[in-house]
Amino acid sequence: MILSFRKTGKIVEIPLVQIRPCRTQARQYYDVESLKALADSIRMNGILQPVTVRKVSALEYELIAGERRVRAAALCGYTRIPCIILTCTDNQAEVLSLEENLQRTNLNCFEEAQGIRQWMRHAQLNPQEAASYLGQQPETLSHKMELLKADEEEKQLMVKAHFTEKHIHAVLRVQDKTDRRIVMSEIIEGSMNVSQSEQYVSDYLENTAREKRRLQRKKGWLKDIRMFHNTIDKAVAALRVSGLAAETIQYDTGDSIEYVIRIPKTRQRMADCQEMTA
């Protein structure tokens, strides 16, 4: 896919108040310390690379590339910033902004995945075309898109914890969101590396599956016990109707449940029972 743009051919200083953010900015998280470091560099050396904008009205420009430089310049107290002006359509500007951001190494993996998805939609590319354009295998691109299964809260937590892409893929093996929070907390608390995280997740999933099977067996066992208990109750009720003062006593020994059925031999007890059921 080839995009053509026309530049003004010169660098122009534009007031920061006239520059608006790009609507399809891939970056969502800005590290404060990183911005401060960039601001310190700008104070010492100035802005070495102009930002790229396009004119959208008489007094307004839309930023295409250079969001961090704009923010750092503002931290330095700059009121104007050097810009290269492009002439392009809305769609071209969106695609160029996304492509520019994808080539920057300081996007986190979630921003990169989100940017690729946006870029594919705007450029109307299927996964095979996008993978070819990016020089990746379709499986690699698909693997990256799986990162977007995490919700926003999970993304922020994992970015803050400096999870690598492999860390995130390990966590996303856990389907249940509550379990996923537990796994993330344990990995963060234990400062686990990738291999440790992968092993922990595997163990967690195995233990969870084992516990689920145990509960299912217990559920089936309890159902059998209830059926047995009902059978005994019906039998004892039939004895009472026939005039026998039968009674049951149940003992839970911890390892087992014991039932004792008592049927009195004395006629008085039997007479009392007949009188009770009369």
Q: What fraction strand?
A: 15-25%
Strand order of the largest sheet: 1-5-3-4-2
Task: Count the beta strands.
Answer: 7
Uncertain residue ranges: 1-6
Q: Structural class, from secondary structure content?
A: alpha/beta
Counted by DSSP, the helix tally is 11
Percent range of helical residues: 55-70%
Q: SSE order, as H and E? A: EEHEEHEHHHHHHHHEEH
Note the main sheet: 5 strands, mixed
Measured between the Cα atoms of the first and last residue, the distance is 95 Å
Q: Which whole number gives the mean pLDDT?
A: 80
Rounded radius of gyration (Å): 35 Å
Q: In words, what does this structure look like?
A:
The structure is a single chain. The chain is α/β, with parallel strands linked by helices and 278 residues long. Helices cover 56% and strands 16% of the residues. The protein has 11 helices and 7 strands. The protein has helices at 32-45, 67-75, 90-102, 109-123, 127-134, 138-145, 152-160, 165-171, 177-189, 194-241, 267-277; strands at residues 6-15, 19-20, 51-57, 60-65, 80-87, 247-252, 257-262. A 5-stranded mixed sheet has the order 1-5-3-4-2. It has a two-stranded antiparallel sheet with strand order 6-7. Strand 6 and strand 7 (257-262) form a beta hairpin. Helix 1 (32-45) crosses helix 2 (67-75), helix 3 runs antiparallel to helix 4 and helix 8 runs parallel beside helix 10 (194-241).
Quick take:
The chain is α/β, with parallel strands linked by helices and about 280 residues long.
